[in-house]
Write a structure and sequence with these properties.
Length: 387
């Protein structure tokens, strides 16, 4: 007998509680950045050589042309000639140039195939200039690739991870610097990663009370303007002092739910008004029983057109060949829990909210439905987000 059970409750999951976001202090450098001090993206086109027959099909045109150009720069007259090789691959190279990067500093680069190459395993990236959005070359990349995967065999081979993309640690050298003139700048702007008027106000108050002799003024929910005196105060010392100040962080009340995993995440500011809840679970159980019907010896044949024979005494003689049949019996039952109304009192802290929700005695997947219903009833004072 085979038994299957289907429950509308789903599988058990878990609830994640986020600690308070409005009762702890975070360093300014962890929640904000100075305007103008940021990373810059670099990109370049290059060739990877040394592949074991897993390179591009040169019929695509750009791989053939790129190889001819490289050979021509090495003194070989290859322009106009067709070059055939499956050991090379055209790739795009990307990197991130951090602020204040000086000449000679090494950067990590990511290399991705842009042709028909099946694998970059064992490849070597040839010298590739990396350009910024302004078209200027800021770094040059070259080196052996490290892949997190591989491929074996032909069309029915084994592939692990993604062998058509790799990385070169410290594979690029910075050739051009981005100038930051902070010494003459007496006005700075600090931008919050998550805009919030309350947090911006706390940030300005923390700076004004730090004794750094600078004036901080909120501009909007994201930015705080800092003005230094006309003389004195080394700007680098001021920035070092400011970015290590603790600021009380505030945030919106949010409940994030993931129906695929049954995960519920709540912030400390979540509140629930007094509400009554009745939630019943419906369970359906399906049983399937398989039995075998075995015919008796000399049973009538199931073949079409089988004709019985009559003996001299009048008895019926049937041809052998009866068939074995498999039969399936299915039975189903449905049960629904008879839950009563549960009164959830108004919660003023996250502990009160969780204690009240636990009193309902449901799984996290059921809790997702309950929270959506409470929100629809107007009793949930939080932003409900489903991912």
């Amino acid at each position: 007998m085979k038994t299957g059970k289907l429950s509308l409750c789903g599988l058990l999951a878990f609830i994640v509680l986020v600690p308070a976001t409005s009762s702890y202090g975070a360093r300014i450098k962890d929640i904000a950045s100075i305007s103008g001090v940021r990373d810059n993206q670099l990109i370049g086109y290059g060739l990877v050589v040394g592949l074991a027959g897993t390179g591009d099909d040169v019929k695509n045109g750009f791989t053939d042309q790129s190889l001819s150009n490289i050979l021509s720069r090495q003194g070989l007259a290859m322009r106009g000639n067709t070059v055939k090789s499956n050991n090379i691959a055209a790739v795009m190279v990307t990197a991130t140039l951090p602020p204040f990067a000086k000449q000679g500093i090494k950067l990590d680069v990511d290399v991705s195939s842009m042709g028909s190459s099946k694998s970059l395993l064992g490849g070597m990236l040839l010298m590739t200039p990396l350009r910024g959005a302004d078209g200027e070359v800021y770094a040059v990349a070259q080196g052996a690739l490290a892949l997190g995967g591989f491929t074996t065999g032909g069309t029915s081979g084994t592939v692990k991870n993604h062998p058509s993309a790799g990385r070169i640690a410290n594979g690029a050298l910075v050739e051009r610097e981005i100038k930051y003139d902070f010494e003459k700048n007496r006005v700075l702007t600090i931008n919050l990663f998550r805009p919030d008027f309350t947090t911006a106000s706390h940030l300005a108050a923390a700076i004004n009370s730090s004794g750094s002799q600078v004036e901080a003024k909120p501009i909007d929910s994201s930015s705080v303007l800092i003005t230094l005196p006309a003389t004195g105060n080394n700007i680098f010392e001021v920035i070092s002092l400011i970015e290590n100040l603790d600021v009380q962080v505030d945030s919106q009340a949010v409940v994030v739910m993931n129906e695929k995993t049954g995960t519920v995440v709540m912030g400390e500011n979540v509140r629930i008004s007094t509400v009554a809840i009745a939630h019943g679970n419906l369970s359906i159980q399906i049983k399937e029983e398989i039995s075998v019907s075995q015919p008796l010896p000399l049973a009538p044949s199931a073949r079409a057109g089988a004709v019985p024979q009559v003996a001299q005494e009048g008895a019926v003689i049937v041809a052998p060949g009866g068939q074995t049949a498999i039969t399936t019996n299915r039975t189903g039952t449905a049960t629904e829990e008879k839950n009563q109304l549960v009164l959830i009192p108004k919660g003023v802290t996250i502990q009160d909210v969780i204690k009240a929700l636990n009193a309902v005695g449901v799984t996290p997947r059921d809790l997702i439905t309950i929270l959506q219903t409470i929100k629809a009833a107007g009793a949930l004072q939080a932003d409900l987000r489903i991912i």
